[in-house]
Specification:
alpha+beta
Length: about 190
């Protein structure tokens, strides 16, 4: 099973991303655009794992969540990873200390369970499209598509499975781990 650990997004954020994606698509010759329901922020790409490995991944997620509280992130701007005449269109998410801490603890805890570290580190973004080819240039797309800087709260981390049905890819949660809620006792 092909898997990754992600932050799933609220419907309102997915709608904002979908609007930006549509505007960008209008400025592009072609591209393979991510379906709205598949928008997410990847924390760690695991790749192929065995069904029995799910418990080990869940253990790392539980240990990570125990030391991380819910926190806010904010959408930033449209970005592009060029690959020749086309590239990957994405929405940038502002880095935060809370996100970096979550990522680093997850990496450490996955390592304790025998999984390799994420080679590329953390570059928080949400993929909007692959093989996207602008009519003019990417800077033209970036100039004309302003992403609303909406804030959203990260409350859970999810182990996702990537499932192919025909030509379509679907992401389904195998395990969802809530982050630790704050509990203060008054004296």
């Amino acid at each position: 099973m092909r898997t990754f650990i992600a932050i799933e997004l609220e419907e309102e954020i997915k709608s904002t991303l979908s609007e930006a994606q549509s505007k960008a698509a209008g400025l592009c010759r072609n591209g393979h655009y991510t379906p709205k329901e598949n928008f997410h922020l990847t924390l760690h790409f695991l790749g192929e794992i065995l069904p029995e490995d799910v418990d080990y991944v869940a253990e790392a997620m539980i240990e990570t969540a125990a030391f991380n509280r819910p926190f806010s992130l904010k959408l930033d701007k449209i970005g592009f990873f060029p690959r020749g005449k086309d590239g990957i269109l994405w929405a940038n998410v502002e880095k935060s200390n809370a996100l970096l801490r979550l990522f680093q603890m997850l990496e450490k805890n996955l390592g304790k369970q025998g999984f390799a570290r994420e080679k590329k580190g953390l570059h928080p973004h949400i993929t909007l499209g692959r093989s996207v080819e602008p009519y003019r240039s990417f800077s033209d797309v970036q100039k004309n598509v302003v992403l609303e800087k909406k804030e959203f709260v990260v409350k859970n981390i999810s182990l996702m499975e990537s499932v192919r049905r025909g030509r379509n890819l679907y992401y389904r949660p195998l395990y969802v781990q809530p982050l630790k809620e704050r509990h203060f006792s008054k004296k």
